[in-house]
Amino acid sequence: MARWRSDTRERLQAAALHLYLSRGYDETTAADIAEAAEVTERTFFRHFADKREVLFDGREFLTTAFVDRVASAPSDAEPLAIIASALDGAAAFFAPERREWSRSRQRIIDANPALQERELLKLAGLAVEIAEALRTRGVEEPAATLSAQSCLTVFGVAFAAWVADGETRPFGDIARATLHELTRVTAGPDAR
Amino acid sequence: MARWRSDTRERLQAAALHLYLSRGYDETTAADIAEAAEVTERTFFRHFADKREVLFDGREFLTTAFVDRVASAPSDAEPLAIIASALDGAAAFFAPERREWSRSRQRIIDANPALQERELLKLAGLAVEIAEALRTRGVEEPAATLSAQSCLTVFGVAFAAWVADGETRPFGDIARATLHELTRVTAGPDAR
């Protein structure tokens, strides 16, 4: 993709976020976003299927970040090590310069139940893709689904902490601490 | 609730399941269900908000089953023991005589993406309620959310196995084996 297209895309995303926060998601149209980004509505729709997808198109890159790390983990890695590797992939995606965008995006989603549902469904789809990548590596069921779901559990908790007001630790540090806490919680003395 | 009402409700549920399987979910109306159950449409709507809720109203009882066991676990129980207790609550709910109903229901849901989304969202809500019940017991974050999500992870995997063709083990046995497998997966040597 040529650089100018990427610029346009980022301008559209920035304009959308600004309008969703200042005017409200429901009150903003694709035409409003295009106008604020100084492009035509047709250009908006070349980049995004609709105004909702401005908030969710990054999920494809995130899925790739997760799944690539699952695929490239050492061949003898245990599921937990593969999960840790996948979370490192997410950490590369959620770089420090993305935190403000993610925070703003989360504020918009938290204010809109329909967007929350969309987010949940996207994350459920992500878990399915990670489980598939684990099975491709030879991880059997139910370990593959349990690992993939646990990866998403850690991701969800870590992400919420990462975008919380005042949090300054990098995503990778939070994710590792959360994975460690999951190990602690699920390895209690009462395991049956 | 008087016995006759419960009978009507069960008749409506049985008629709905039969129609959803034989004719298709989208092709069945609340009026069709009422007619098959030999009651008026108004009676249908006294029991269910719409035709979709015939498939989902049990979720409230399931939530209660989970949350009650979380609340009533011994006061010194570790999160994992509380999860095991909650899964026992689910096992009481998914008694052997419910398996055929659950199998049929699952077949209908698997054939309909909108129902799958509804199911995912209901389960996400269940995780939120379990986390809340854990916090009420004094379990701190992020352990409460990690435990609740892990509980739902185990539940989802165990439930899918329980309704699989040919599976004969009781839900409780499958859930315990799955919880054990989760402990194994998340306690690998590569824990950081």
UniProtKB/TrEMBL annotation, chains A, B:
List the InterPro entries hit by this protein, alphabetically. Answer: DNA-bd_HTH_TetR-type_CS (IPR023772), Homeodomain-like_sf (IPR009057), HTH-type_TetR-like_transc_reg (IPR050109), HTH_TetR (IPR001647), MftR_C (IPR041347)
Q: Which residues bind DNA?
A: 29-48
User: What keywords are assigned to this protein?
Assistant: DNA-binding, Transcription, Transcription regulation
Task: Quote the protein name from its UniProt record.
Answer: AcrR family transcriptional regulator
Which residue ranges does the record assign to the HTH tetR-type domain? 6-66
Q: Which SUPFAM superfamilies match?
A: Homeodomain-like (SSF46689)
Q: Which parts form a coiled-coil structure per UniProt?
A: none
- What superkingdom does the record give? Bacteria
Extract the GO molecular function terms from the UniProt entry.
DNA-binding transcription factor activity; transcription cis-regulatory region binding
Stored PROSITE patterns: HTH_TETR_1, HTH_TETR_2
